[in-house]
Amino acid sequence: MQEESKPSVVTPTYQQKGSLSTFRGTPEEDHLKWLKEYDRVTKLNNWDDMMRASLIFISSLMALRSSADEQLKSRSQRSGEITQSYIQSVLNQEVNPLKTDDEKVSKLMKGIAEDIYGALLTKEINTPADFIKWCNYIEDMKQERIRRRFERLPNVAHVAAMENEPDFVSVIRRIVQEEFHRMISQTREPILYSEPYPQTQLLKEVVQDEIKKALAPVSVNRAEIQQ
Description:
- This is Retrotrans_gag domain-containing protein.
- It comes from Trichonephila clavata (Joro spider).
- About 60% of the residues lie in helices and about 0% in strands.
- It is mostly helical.
């Protein structure tokens, strides 16, 4: 018995007329030219408003993805940016879920800071998790090296004394003695004055002036230390 031939099922296909380029929104692109192209293609295919809206939505997603890819290609660790911040930024911006671990590690290595990059070259890194682990280890070692180099002794004084700072009491005593002897040697004989005790007043002014001069260098040195 001869089998009856079954009719073949033909699935209708839709052939789009004309091609529409992807608008990425870059400064070099002419948006008016793209809109004219978009209007021409939609009229050529007799698309309704639903089809037009779908095309705009798909084109927008493609443009966003293309823009994100371009930014990710040039992404590198900035000056002052911590390594973990750079890693998270790169991994979060990755829009291609099909990228392998090897490709992700390659992208991270291309933009990492130079000092970290040199240390990572000797490590076995196959996944982003390995990359993060070794970056943390390298930064911890760097911090530990800094702490050991500048480790403080427990008996360090809080304030450093100045070697050339004079004893204030000795300075005042010396100035008073010198001025007193100098004035006594100049006035061997008593002199009558209209005001009481002018020598005492003069001695006081001279002593005050000399003390200010003697303490001036100390004040300047302390100001320099505070700066």
